[in-house]
């Protein structure tokens, strides 16, 4: 595996490259492609951090742990709560901030805060021709190249190699609590539809989980009012006990160490119960029902999973192959119109197909 130490070195390499490359940072998220492995982990370091402006700029190879530690020292965080895939995929190494942005990796707080791409202010990357591209800025008011910034967040390395990201960060709230009980997706919907500012809504390990964050007095009031509205018996977990629960949801901890294929299914929240009834597999439900993780044994039931998801208007990504045959694509096949748009973009950014196997 070759490690790139600078943006200039990367640009020079890509300008003269004709064979495929598999680009990654820590190679922890399973987003590798075909060809020689190229690590961007050398593009590291926090280049700018202004706590007062809620802005951080870092090289794409900067370990996520380093970014989170710097933010925590100032009482701040990445509000989109990026997942750590290592426990689920059995990978090692260090997740990087560039990998987070490339995968648009977003956790339970997405229901209220938005996705990783919503916090991406700017990006630098090198495209398949070896051209260095810079879009966006370091403040929310700067919308130059805004659409291209959003495009790169979630592109999974198909359009170029991200070398630097600019992110908006937020303060850590004073208090968090979790209500743990029963009721499943309908209760999650009721909680999210309430006026009590729910920041997490999931079903994991057989428990229905609802998170509240903010100032202590506000959280105490909302906790009592929401529990009364929902009815039933609720266990209240506070502080680190609550945070540990949500790390487990974020990282799909109930599937760690278990055999089988893992599917990540995005579906309209109200259709999640139909999906679970149709497939009858072990599941972790997040985003109030909008995200369903399925653990499927045997051959992974690829045709059944994708047929059920398509019928419900969602899409399924194969995150861990398990027993699924090698010929089954990890990503949901795109509709013809979307495929034409995707093809046009990839030809524009990567005319020689260097990143063709990415993602």
Describe this structure in words.
This protein is of the alpha+beta class. Among the domains are: 2-171, Uridine Diphospho-n-acetylenolpyruvylglucosamine Reductase, domain 3; 175-250, Alpha-Beta Plaits (2-Layer Sandwich). 30% of the residues lie in helices and 26% in strands. It is built from twelve helices and 18 strands. The protein has helices at 7-15, 64-72, 86-89, 97-102, 110-113, 146-152, 184-192, 216-230, 239-250, 272-279, 302-311, 336-349, and strands at residues 2-3, 21-24, 36-39, 46-50, 55-59, 76-77, 120-127, 132-136, 160-168, 170-171, 175-181, 198-204, 207-214, 235-238, 261-266, 282-286, 291-296, 315-320. The chain has a five-stranded antiparallel sheet with strand order 4-5-9-7-8. Strands 12-13-11-14 form a four-stranded antiparallel sheet, sandwiched between helices. A hairpin with a 4-residue loop joins strand 4 (46-50) and strand 5. It is globular. It starts with a strand and ends in a 10-residue tail after the last helix.
Keywords:
single chain, 359 residues, alpha+beta, Uridine Diphospho-n-acetylenolpyruvylglucosamine Reductase, domain 3, Alpha-Beta Plaits, five-stranded antiparallel sheet, 18 strands, 26% strand, FAD binding, catalytic activity, FAD-binding protein, FAD, flavoprotein
């Amino acid at each position: 595996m070759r490690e790139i130490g600078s943006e200039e070195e990367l640009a020079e390499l890509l300008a003269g490259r004709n064979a495929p490359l598999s680009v990654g940072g820590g190679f922890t998220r399973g987003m590798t492609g075909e060809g020689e492995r190229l690590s961007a982990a050398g593009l590291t370091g926090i280049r700018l951090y202004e706590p007062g402006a809620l802005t951080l700029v870092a090289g794409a190879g900067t370990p996520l742990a380093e970014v989170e530690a710097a933010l925590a020292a100032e009482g701040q965080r990445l509000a989109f709560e990026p997942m750590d895939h290592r426990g689920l995929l059995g990978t090692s190494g260090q997740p990087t901030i560039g990998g987070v942005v490339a995968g648009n990796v977003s956790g339970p707080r997405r229901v209220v805060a938005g996705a990783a791409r919503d916090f991406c202010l700017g990006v630098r990357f090198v495209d398949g021709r070896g051209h260095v591209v810079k879009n966006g800025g370091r403040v929310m008011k700067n919308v130059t190249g805004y659409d291209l910034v959003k495009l790169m967040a979630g592109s999974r390395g198909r359009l170029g190699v991200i070398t630097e990201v600019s992110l908006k960060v937020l303060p850590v709230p004073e208090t968090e609590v979790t209500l743990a009980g029963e009721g499943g997706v309908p209760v999650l919907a009721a909680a999210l539809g309430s006026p009590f500012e729910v920041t997490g809504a999931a079903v994991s390990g057989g428990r229905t989980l609802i998170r509240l964050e903010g100032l202590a007095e506000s959280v105490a009031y909302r906790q009592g009012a929401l529990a009364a509205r929902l009815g039933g018996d609720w266990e209240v977990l506070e502080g680190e006990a609550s945070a540990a629960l949500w790390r487990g949801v974020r990282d799909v901890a109930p599937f760690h160490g278990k055999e089988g294929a893992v599917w990540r299914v995005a579906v309209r929240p109200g259709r999640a119960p139909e999906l679970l009834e149709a497939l009858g597999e072990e599941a972790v439900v997040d985003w109030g029902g909008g995200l369903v993780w399925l653990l499927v044994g045997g051959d992974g039931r690829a045709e059944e999973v994708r047929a059920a998801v398509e019928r419900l208007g969602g899409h399924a990504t194969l995150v861990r192959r398990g027993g699924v045959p090698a010929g089954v694509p990890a990503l949901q096949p795109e509709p013809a119109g979307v495929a034409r748009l995707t093809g046009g973009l990839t030809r524009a950014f990567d005319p020689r197909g260097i990143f063709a196997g990415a993602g």
